[in-house]
User: Fold this.
Amino acid sequence: RLHTQHLFKKDATLSAFHDHFQNYQILHFSTHAEADSLQTPRIELIDSTLFLPEIYNLPLDANLVVLSACQTALGEEQNGEGLMSLARGFAYAGAPSLVASLWKVNNKSTSDLMTSFYAHLKAGNSKSDALRLAKLDYLATASTAQLSPYYWSGMVFIGADNVVQFNQSIPL
Assistant:
């Protein structure tokens, strides 16, 4: 059984995130995020915004960060630095593995994809295999109108690929 802490709607505050993020091996953000060229990449919480520079300074101990919000693997390219994305910020803060998005993702298909992803993780698949299998599950069950890569291929795996040990009651 997984130990989880869900921060929904009014509970999804910046202070609640700061109070809890060090207690979990998997962090999952399913909220609004943006990485346009006009503003700093950011994750929107109910009461505040978590900006990329703040993410760099997090004392992160999570094994996996899942960013199932829009454009979390996108950002502005900086000379000598590379792509300044939310995914890069979490990697810099210490996350060895990430799942992030390449564009504005569809809420329903991403939710289905993430449900399947966690089922495959729990079944003992590596992180990248779990995402690949979740995409295959989606393709096997999606309507013809939703087979476009827009619905399922925007989520990508980045980083160290290993199996998550759920038998140790790792929080989710």
About this structure: The mean pLDDT is 89. The two ends are 10 Å apart (CA to CA). Strands lie at 26-29, 33-34, 42-44, 49-51, 64-67, 75-78, 82-85, 97-101, 155-159.
